[in-house]
Amino acid sequence: MRVTTERDRCVGSGQCALLSPEVFDQDDHGLVVVLREEPADDLRAGVLQAADLCPSRSIRVDS
Amino acid sequence: MTQSADAAPDAGAPLPQFPMRRTCPFSEPREYAAMRADNPVSRAALKVNGKPTWLVTRHEDVRQVLGDGRVSSNLKLPGYPHQFHIPEEMLAQIRPMLLSMDPPEHTAQRRMLIREFTARRVKEMRPRIQEIVDERVDAMLATGGPVDLVTALALPVPSLVICELLGVPYEDHAQFEEWSAAMMNHELSPAEYGAAVQALDAYLDKLVTLKEDEPGDDLISRFLEKNRSEQVADHVDVVTMARLMLVGGHETTANMIALGVLALLQHPEQLAELQEDPALLPGAIEELLRVFSISDSGTARVALEDIEVGDITIRAGEGILALNNAANHDESVFPDPATLDIHRKEARSHLAFGYGIHQCIGANLARVELEAVYGTLLRRIPGLRLAADPDELRFKDDAMVYGVYELPVTW
Ligand code: SF4
């Protein structure tokens, strides 16, 4: 699984950091940062949920 | 009712009117389910002026519309589906605020604010929020009951929290709570609405001026400071932003607190489960947010181009209301949607905070406040019960944000 984000779309809602804190955080500007680009499989459910619920569709997951 | 000719393209049949009333506070207006089934993107006439608008009711479609860059939030565009009667002159004077801005202005202003609401920042506010809740609960217990939970707890907690965050003196809360409640009322005359906005703006104008000279440790001051280099806002923009934060920050959460407590008291088995296992609380909060969807008509848009939604083409210039309450009761996403189920695993997919670039910036702050309030009540007042006949409660059918006017409780 590979996680990428489009930071220029991010609206800083923090859904991702809340749903999958192992993989996402927000920087000092409130924008998404990816902590692990290739997270382990046990984090998959959280990552997929974050991608689905991200209101600006900034998160991409390639399997 | 006045209805323009183009409001009824299929001649004869009058359009349904919007808003529609909820018959049960725990559910959506009855008409929504029928629309979702037969006519998920359909026409309605706005009660306030008879103008036609599109109603979008399915979860998937609501997400699509709110995530679409080809729709605008600009309330000055001709097709915008207003919920209030706003005279032309007044509309011309309205300063755009975050909610009614499109990119790139929206992006620039929102980016000035999101750092204040990151998951981490909000977590850091938790202890102070808990303190505020405990103080209010102490005061409530000291009265011996019964009390009105709205005035004793639901309103003061978010009001205190947002005041501290913004740097607004809480001593003035009675005033701005009144203005803010007035601004949410559908049934107010334009003059009364305008007066409330003006009064609040005059108040905040003074406050912002003060902070321009003497900054404090608060969101408004930090915004002003950052704005010195970024220049995305002028003085009036800051006042407008402060109004949005102040009103948005307490009215919504206050209503959600009171309604949530009511719902839990009406579902004693689920309440008991939460008392047993507070770890269930975050999930329960998502479910309560879903069920009530208190700000159902806050997602008005105008199409900038022709867009396809479901089987329908919405034309450029037409108004759209993406109904999150309808989306949140979509049975294809939330089976048996009218039933409150704190274990519902898909509850988090609700759109109660909206969706897309305008999704509520304070969503995570609201979650922390709700958790603190519900958690504290469950722990500290396990014997809490309603002190009124549930049938006699008055609900805010006339407001932009749904709620209950009073919630008498005792223990
Ligand atoms: S959920 Fe999406 S919009 Fe929100 S912070 Fe994460 S990437 Fe940004």
Automatic annotation (TrEMBL), chain B:
PROSITE patterns: CYTOCHROME_P450. Keywords: Heme, Iron, Metal-binding, Monooxygenase, Oxidoreductase. It comes from the Bacteria. Pfam families: p450. Residues 1-14 have a biased composition (Low complexity). Belongs to the cytochrome P450 family. This is Cytochrome P450. It comes from Streptomyces roseochromogenus subsp. oscitans DS 12.976.
